[in-house]
Design goal:
Elements (H helix, E strand, L loop, with lengths): L10 E5 L2 H13 L3 E6 L7 H8 L3 E4 L12 E4 L8 H8 L4 E2 L12 E6 L4 H14 L4 E5 L5 H7 L5 E5 L2 H5 L8 E4 L7 H4 L2 H9 L10 E5 L3 H6 L6 E6 L8 E3 L3 E4 L2 E5 L9 H15 L4 H8 L10 E6 L2 E5 L6 H8 L6 E5 L18 E6 L4 H10 L5 E3 L3 H11 L5 E4 L12 H14 L1
Helix pairs in contact: 4-10, 4-11, 14-15
């Protein structure tokens, strides 16, 4: 088991338990670092609370007393806790570092660390890279925003193995020294502004993925995205661009027929199993990382001809009486849904709606030309209905839950139609996570 090396803090406040907080508290305890845990919602009877108490840790529940900062060197907080939290705000005013557990990766001194971020496509790209390593019989682990606590995985990773980490802006904002050997920036879209407040602040958080990289490292980035192009100008590392629009001698690109790495043909597009034009960008990024890591073309092609996607990301669910059902529950913003819609030429029934973050949906309009019906749910159903009426769509249904949505979509459909769950909204008005929402969709499809 790996130990933290040169960790500069003697006394840590872990703010927020959940999965990452619990893992970090146990990790710090194993490294002999004094750890206090604070959580607003957990209770004494929770199994993870009792486990930490049995390890001798001090745990304060149900409040965030400012006195907790006395004698503390650093806060490691759950990424979802906003910086407006009184305890976090007070710590910032006192000059205390406020970090996320991703920062701990720096102190494990890993052999190879690949970090992937972007507004959309992170999980697909992370999984593609991971599968390419595995196909080439290379030692590799995957972690981060994909569902596994990165520092927990890093603690037990084998020598010589690569760690591939999906990174959100929430995680990256809480880093100071974190430095991947290869970073990937897929795209930037105005997202999570309820947390970051401004686009500049969101971009600043994302740029933390490469801010500490140097001349021995690599930054793979989307040369077609103007905001990404602007952001990477501040990078002081080796730039490896990818593009679906232009020929790149120093990166990966598509000519519309095949994909290339530095003019070396890798694979014909027609042989790729993963659907969706937007996934070509994710694939180009994955190819760039694989080639930088010396992964064979045979392994790359094997993955690309067999990998059909991950759950909740344009996941094919079933063909029922000629209707094709796709689960894209991870589409929690307009950009993700617009890319999903561009993946199909068939008549489409769109299932959409969810948490109302205050935005309108007019930006979806150019991508609705194949949409024949809307089936709407959640807080944003009235806004999406108004959009449908504005563009002259007559087939609109509003339902209460996912089972009703699937049943109604099937009634409205004909043979050859695509029935697509791509909500363009977060799930938290009705479901705990986008995964729960997507699972409900899949279950409802199978009930048909």
């Amino acid at each position: 088991m790996r130990k933290l090396k040169k960790f500069p803090y003697q006394s840590v406040l872990v703010l927020g338990l959940a999965k990452s907080g619990t893992a970090v508290a146990k990790l710090l305890n194993r490294n002999g670092i004094k750890t206090i845990v604070n959580d607003l919602k957990a209770v004494e009877s929770d199994a993870h609370v009792q486990e930490l108490q049995n390890l001798g840790m001090e745990i304060i529940l149900g409040e965030h007393p400012l006195s907790l900062l006395d004698g503390i060197d650093v806060i490691i907080k759950n990424p979802g806790i906003p910086y407006e939290n009184p305890l976090v705000r007070q710590a910032t005013e006192q000059g205390l570092p406020v970090l996320t557990e991703i920062e701990l990766l720096y102190y494990f001194e890993l052999d190879s660390l690949v970090g992937i971020t972007g507004s959309n496509g992170k999980t697909t790209t992370t999984t593609l890279i991971y599968e390419m390593y595995k196909q080439d019989r290379r030692k590799v682990e995957v972690a981060g925003n994909i569902g596994l606590v990165a520092s927990e995985v890093a603690e037990t990773i084998e020598d010589g193995a690569a760690l591939v980490v999906e990174l959100s802006s929430f995680q990256l904002l809480g880093t100071q020294c974190f430095k991947p050997s290869i970073s990937v920036v897929l795209n930037l879209f105005e997202a999570h502004l309820d947390y970051h407040h401004t686009l500049d602040h969101y971009m600043e958080a994302k740029s933390n993925i490469f801010k500490n990289q140097s001349t021995g490292d690599f930054l793979v980035y989307n040369a077609d995205d103007q905001m990404v192009e602007l952001m990477v100008q501040q990078a002081e590392t080796n730039l490896v661009p990818f593009s679906t629009k232009e020929h790149l001698d120093n990166g990966t690109y598509s000519d519309g027929i095949a994909l290339y790495y530095k003019n070396e043909k890798i694979i014909e597009i027609e042989k790729i199993a993963l659907v969706g034009e937007h996934n070509i960008e994710n694939i180009l990024a994955a190819i760039a990382v694989a080639k930088l890591e010396g992964i064979s073309n045979e392994a790359i092609k094997s993955v690309l001809t067999t990998f059909t996607g991950v759950s909740h990301r344009l996941q094919f669910v079933d063909n029922i009486e000629g209707r094709l059902f796709y689960n894209d529950s991870k589409a929690t913003n307009i950009l993700a849904t617009s890319k999903a819609l561009q993946s199909f030429q068939q008549p489409t029934i769109l299932l959409a709606g969810g948490l109302d973050r205050g935005n309108e949906f007019d930006d979806l309009t150019p991508y609705l030309k194949n949409v024949k019906s809307f089936v709407l749910f959640g807080e944003t159903a009235p806004k999406l209905k108004a959009l449908a009426e504005k563009i002259g769509l007559e087939s609109i249904a509003t339902v209460n839950n996912m089972e009703e949505a699937v049943e109604e979509a099937f009634k409205l459909s004909e043979e050859g139609d695509v029935i697509l769950l791509s909500p363009a909204c977060a799930s938290w008005d009705q479901y705990k996570t986008f995964e729960e929402r997507g699972n409900m969709f899949v279950e409802s499809v199978h009930k048909l």
